[in-house]
Amino acid sequence: MAITKSNIPPKAQKLPPGVYTPVISLYKPTKTQELDLDAMYKHAQYLVRGGMHGLVYQGTNGEAVLLTREERIQALKTARRAVTDLGVPEYPIVAGISAESTNTSIELAKDAAEAGASFALLLPPSYWTKAISEEALHKFFRDVADESPLPLVLYNFPQVTPGQDLTSDDLIALAQHPNIVATKLTCANVGKAIRVTSKFTPEQFTVFGGSSDFLFPTLEAGGSGCVAALGNVFPKSTSKLYDLWVAGEKEQARALQDVVANAEWACKKGVVLTKFGAGHFVGPKIGVKAEAFHPRRPYLPPAEKAQKWTVDIMGVLLDEEEKIPDKTFGVNGAK
């Protein structure tokens, strides 16, 4: 018995496979917490040197809802400058364009393209959930895709969109659009991923997991990678898991998956602990003070007990991270 594959043509632009970091926003230690673009530049280069295959800005971990339109533009321009200065000007940068209205999402997509982003990431609308029928939901994504200068990645994260959970039927229907190229499944539903990958090749529509704690099963299910908050803290280990799997070193990849899954548990508690972990483990390495990693008000840094717990949980990856060398770059990119 076989599943009939879709016959839609390959997409003009495919989201490259691999592990992406949903990059956190860093702030100056002032009352209004302006973006610390210098710190974000350093962090971006640290992630790329750490082996990340792409960066995602203005997603949930980027605190997108707390940023102004101008701040979004500044952050994306800084990221593009950071990768260009490393010698990889075509490095994939995905920009979150999620908004409650179709018009605003289109505006953000155009802003992101002008600022140097490569792809756009979009959540379902969720302000009036009872008014969002299947027809309205599909029309929202298609209308944005029609006008977006960037290829669209569907972002499914039911925890932040109350009542809105893109089903495999939704994804399969929306994948027919020529400018909808991929999905990020933070719902962690591997069954959903399998149903979608059973219908499409990665050239037609690409499936990514929403965290690294189920990267191995995502890849085994036909997915192309993941977007992992843990990458903000341990980019080398999370990207290595993917690289091992691609190289056919599945036994090593499976063993590393166990450790990565345990370390990412802290990220599951929310962006506050993810940012603290990055400040603790990464801040000293890139010369950025811990205050830059504080969440934006009204959210507060974690209490001392939560800080200790985060260090203990994430720390299981420290030895692995330290023994992996940085990637080096030249005029023609990675070496």
CATH superfamily: Aldolase class I
Computed Rg: 19 Å
Poorly predicted regions: none
Work out the strand percent.
Answer: 5-15%
- What does the largest sheet look like? 8 strands, parallel, barrel
Counting structural domains, the number is: 1
The CATH topology assignment is: TIM Barrel
Helix amount: 40-55%
Please tally the helical runs, counting DSSP H or I stretches of 4 or more residues.
13
InterPro entries: Aldolase_TIM, DapA-like
Organism: Aaosphaeria arxii CBS 175.79
Pfam family, one: DHDPS
GO molecular function: 4-hydroxy-tetrahydrodipicolinate synthase activity
Question: What are the salient characteristics of this protein?
Answer:
single chain, 335 residues, alpha/beta, TIM Barrel, eight-stranded parallel beta barrel, two-stranded antiparallel sheet, 10 strands, 41% helix, globular
Structural summary, described in words:
The chain has 335 residues and is α/β, with parallel strands linked by helices. The protein has one domain (18-323): TIM Barrel (Alpha-Beta Barrel). It is 41% helix and 12% strand. Strands 1-2-3-4-5-6-7-8 form an eight-stranded parallel β-barrel, surrounded by six helices.
Secondary-structure blueprint:
Layout: E1 18-22, H1 37-49, E2 54-57, H2 69-86, E3 93-96, H3 102-115, E4 119-122, H4 134-147, E5 152-156, H5 168-174, E6 180-185, H6 190-197, E7 206-209, H7 215-220, E8 225-227, H8 235-246, H9 250-264, H10 271-281, H11 283-286, H12 304-314, H13 318-322, E9 329-330, E10 333-334
Parallel strand pairs: 1-2, 1-8, 2-3, 3-4, 4-5, 5-6, 6-7, 7-8
Antiparallel strand pairs: 9-10
Helix pairs in contact: 1-2, 2-3, 3-4, 5-6, 8-9, 10-12
